[in-house]
Amino acid sequence: MDRSALQPLAERMRPLELDDMVGQRRLLAEGSALRRAIESGHVHSMILWGPPGCGKTTLALLLARYSDAEFRAISAVLSGLPEVRKVLAEAEHRFADGRRTVLFVDEVHRFNKVQQDAFLPHIERGTILFVGATTENPSFELNSALLSRCRVHVLEAVSPDDIEHALRLALSDATRGLGDREVRASDACLSQIARAADGDVRRALTLLEIAAELAAGEGGEITEATLLQVLADRTRRFDKGGEQFYDQISALHKSVRSSNPDAALYWLARMLDGGCDPIYLARRLTRMAVEDIGLADPRALQMATDAWDAYDRLGSPEGELALAQLTLYLASTAKSNAAYMAYKRAQRDVAEHGTQDVPLHLRNAPTRLMKSLGYGKDYQYDHDAEDGVALGQTGFPDAMGEREYYQPVPRGLEIKLKEKLDRLRGARARAQGRQAAGEPADEA
User: Fold this and answer.
1) Are 71 and 104 in contact (CB under 8 A)?
2) pLDDT tens column, 334-369
3) For residues 196 and 208, what is the distance between their CA atoms, to the nearest angstrom?
4) Using an 8 Å Cβ cutoff, are 394 and 402 in contact?
5) Residue 10 DSSP SS3
6) CA–CA separation, 271 vs 322, rounded Å?
């Protein structure tokens, strides 16, 4: 039996020429640096960074084909250092015989620093053409020594139109594809499969192969009813611990901050759809209520804790509506980071001025000894002062003088807070100025 017949459709349809690749037009355009290097056979060690099914493995195979090099592949998920050393030793023997090796390392970000360092001398000597594939940001996941020896190429998710083209090729190819089975599918059905694949060509071809098997008993026609079975449990791309996760929570936070409730709701729905823990989202939304809405609308924090509590009580999916309502409110209400910035300023002063003594008038004096030492002396009880504020005393350590950390913005409730604080701060400054000049400090 032909072994290729046992291979999945996605493997059988893997491109054999650069022109057969779908997607990656920017990277592999005619005249591009990478394409010229591949076609000339003078390629360099590289990191291919992109989502699943975008062509990383295929591109590595084509590098070996165009360079007339031996192709070896290992997976960082399945391989340890002993296997890496064995493959590298084989590559050295092959290099001594005048032939190079393209060493493809899938999921390279899963190798630790020691394992990544094992490749370095072989890359430098040219015994291997190193091609590492990763779905994670190389800046964070790969050590600098390996990155300095490789060029990073960014691959993009394949567009639905390009995926449809790959599906049509698979349906028409009688040698490697499904052409000999006379499988038929309308443009609408192929479009559904392409969209469900979510940028992943391999996934699209797998879905097509499953649909073709189901259609075999229905006259070879892939119908809407066939796709209802095939696509029932499809999920979108989402890595709960990877860069996509952090990109999407960043998009949610920034959409709330920019008062775009529709965009914020979209990113919330994307993350919930991808399997993000709703409690994590509740915590992040609560942070937004504190950091980005703040005292412009103090109700936001209460609503955030209420929504969090509602999810705890209701669970999914009902509790997700509470998070959706909260997201819409946070994005729609007045914004201020004044409290956040005030706290940062206070932190800087604490770090800069060290451990300052509490002024005597602000200290408690529960014992006779403490009173005799001046604790609490000259403290002015604010409720006895006019307007309920004793203006002639400071609340800061003597060595620091008055500070103004909190600067309300002219939005929401902070409009009124700003008016009040501007009046109080001005009156306090004048009162303390008169006190320093030996005049009475009280002021109406």
Assistant:
1) yes
2) 999 999 999 999 999 998 888 888 888 888 888 888
3) 11
4) yes
5) helix
6) 15
Judged by DSSP in three states, 166 sits in helix
Q: Which domains does the chain have, with CATH numbers?
A: 24-154 (3.40.50.300), 160-230 (1.10.8.60), 243-332 (1.20.272.10), 360-436 (1.10.3710)
Beta strands per DSSP E along 97-164: 101-106, 128-134, 151-154
- Cα–Cα distances (Å) from 378 to 41, 79, 193, 333, in that order, read 86, 74, 79, 44
Report how far apart, in Å, the C-alpha atoms of 392 and of each of 399, 419, 433 are.
Answer: 17, 20, 9
The sign of the dihedral angle between the CA atoms of 144, 147, 152, 158 is negative
d(C-alpha 282, C-alpha 259), whole Å = 18
Greatest alpha-carbon pair distance for the chain in Å reads 106
CA dist., res. 442 & res. 430, Å (int): 10
- Asked if 295 contacts 417 with a C-beta cutoff of 8 angstroms, the reply is yes
Q: For residue 349, what are the contacts with CB-CB under 8 A and spacing of at least 6?
A: 400, 403, 405
- Concatenated DSSP letters of 219-268: TTEE-HHHHHHHSTT------TTSHHHHHHHHHHHHHHHTT-HHHHHHHH
How far is it, in rounded angstroms, from Cα 124 to Cα 328? 54
Determine how many CB atoms are found less than 10 A away from the CB of residue 408: 23
Which of 112-121, 140-149, 293-302, 388-397 has maximum average pLDDT?
Answer: 293-302
Run of H or E including 171 = helix 160-172
CB hemisphere CA count around 192 (13 angstroms)? 20
Closest C-alpha among 256, 308, 312 to residue 286: 308
| 257 pLDDT higher than 90 | yes
Is residue 48 within a helix (H) or strand (E), and if so which, with residue range? strand 46-49
Q: Which two tokens stand for residue 54?
A: 């975008």
Q: Residues in the chain, how many? A: 444
Please give the Cα distance from 364 to 427 (Å, whole number).
Answer: 26
